[in-house]
Amino acid sequence: MTSEEKTIFKKIIDGEIPANVVFQDDLCLAFHDAFPQAPVHVLLIPKQEIENVDSLDDQHRDLAGHLLLTVPKVARLLGIEDSGYRVVANCGKDGGQSVDHLHLHILAGRPLTWPPG
Ligand code: DGP
């Protein structure tokens, strides 16, 4: 894959563009969103290239579980475990997905309204 074909998140994984990293391990990376929609807005992504939630299948069982289990670890690092937070995965056009690399938004720091727009 050429650099031009890489998603912005793959470039962050590969260290080609900087990110404010909160947490990482062998499988995933969490970093602050460049366009925060709440006082705390962190993205958690797998290092493996997966387009979105709809691309997940049985081969991703362990990774998907690991990603979800990493959310509370990141929440504790951010100090939002008591106040609460929202986890969002936008998927596809109507879901509002703009980067074609699976990511979980972790949003916190103010009461979040429901339903989303
Ligand atoms: P989504 O719309 O669900 O695909 O979310 C993509 C998010 O990625 C959006 O909240 C803005 C964020 N984003 C886009 N480009 C960059 C970047 O270069 N760095 C960081 N940290 N976040 C980015």
Write down the CATH class: Alpha Beta
Provide the CATH topology: HIT family, subunit A
Report the sheet with the most strands, covering strand number, pairing sense and barrel closure. 5 strands, antiparallel
User: CATH superfamily, called what?
Assistant: HIT-like
Question: How much strand?
Answer: 15-25%
| Integer-rounded radius of gyration | 14 Å
Number of domains: 1
The helical percent reads 10-25%
H and E string: HEEEHEHE
Beta strands, count: 5
Task: Write down the overall mean pLDDT.
Answer: 96
Strand neighbour order, sheet with most strands = 1-2-3-5-4
Number of helices: 3
Bound molecule types: 2'-deoxyguanosine-5'-monophosphate
Please state the overall shape, judged from the principal axes of the Cα atoms: globular
Q: SS-based structural class?
A: alpha+beta
Termini separation comes to: 35 Å
> What is the CATH-assigned architecture?
2-Layer Sandwich
Identify low-pLDDT runs: none
Brief characterization of the structure:
The chain is α+β, with helices and mostly antiparallel strands and 117 residues long. The chain is built from three helices and five strands.
